[in-house]
Structures are given as structure tokens and as C-alpha cells.
């Protein structure tokens, strides 16, 4: 069972960060969601409220690159790399990172490092 105070605290932090973090078409917002098993990342243009690109550990082509023996941090790094490669195809080089109220360590940090390895700058 999830601790209600922990979830509420994350939502408060997310709202506080979202006041300042804003994505445009040239520099979209890289939003991260972390569940217990999977990792999700998407590029969002907040001016038109459109999602430009999504990648998660559940997509078929991502699953092909993941091993069953990989740890969650390693899987997150692969998601970041694939996201960066797809963003390059759409001519997106710079993003604004939205950690969604999560701490910047563990899976969130490895996804960011993977995206940086793939060529995104933020």
C-alpha cells in the first residue's frame, strides 16, 4: 500500500516545479513518470498542449532491446537513449527536464543520462 503523504508530497513538488518549467515547440518539456515496474518519458509542447513523442519500457521496440536480467536503472537508461534518438529524427536537440516531483537520482537520473548520451541537451 502506498503512503498517502508520500504521494501528496510528490504532487505538491510537481505543481511547484511546473510553475517554472514550460516546454515550447523548439525546446519541449521532457516529462518523466516512474511506476514500480516501468518507466515512461514524453516530450510535450506546452504552448499547444501536444505530446510530440512518447517512449516507455512497454513499447515493442524498446522491449526488444531490454533483457529480462537488466536492472531498472539500466532499463531507464535505454529508454533515455531511444527517446533521444527519436527526438533527433524530429529535429529536437534541446529539452527542458521535468522530473515530476521525483528526486533526481536512481531511475530518473539514469533516464536523463541516457538522453544526454543520445544527444539531447538540457
TrEMBL record:
GO molecular function: 5S rRNA binding; structural constituent of ribosome
Family annotation (InterPro entries): Ribosomal_L18, Ribosomal_uL18_bac-type, Ribosomal_uL18_bac/plant/anim
Keywords: Ribonucleoprotein, Ribosomal protein, RNA-binding, rRNA-binding
Entry-linked Pfam families: Ribosomal_L18p
Coiled-coil region: none
GO biological process: one example: translation
Family: Belongs to the universal ribosomal protein uL18 family.
Subunit comment: Part of the 50S ribosomal subunit; part of the 5S rRNA/L5/L18/L25 subcomplex. Contacts the 5S and 23S rRNAs.
Database matches in HAMAP family: Ribosomal_uL18_B
Function comment: This is one of the proteins that bind and probably mediate the attachment of the 5S RNA into the large ribosomal subunit, where it forms part of the central protuberance.
Protein name, as recorded: Large ribosomal subunit protein uL18
Organism: candidate division TA06 bacterium DG_26
Gene name, Swiss-Prot/TrEMBL: rplR
Amino acid at each position: 500500500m502506498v503512503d498517502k503523504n508520500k504521494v501528496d508530497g510528490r504532487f505538491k513538488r510537481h505543481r511547484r516545479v511546473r510553475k517554472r518549467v514550460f516546454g515550447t515547440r523548439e525546446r519541449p518539456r521532457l516529462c518523466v513518470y516512474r511506476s514500480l515496474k516501468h518507466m515512461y518519458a514524453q516530450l510535450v509542447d506546452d504552448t499547444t498542449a501536444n505530446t510530440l513523442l512518447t517512449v516507455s519500457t512497454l513499447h515493442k521496440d524498446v522491449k526488444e532491446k531490454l533483457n529480462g536480467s537488466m536492472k531498472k536503472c539500466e532499463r531507464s537508461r535505454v529508454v533515455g537513449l531511444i527517446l533521444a534518438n527519436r527526438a533527433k529524427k524530429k529535429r529536437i536537440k534541446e529539452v527542458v527536464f521535468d522530473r515530476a516531483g521525483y528526486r533526481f537520482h536512481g531511475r530518473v537520473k539514469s533516464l536523463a543520462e541516457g538522453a544526454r548520451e543520445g544527444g539531447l541537451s538540457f
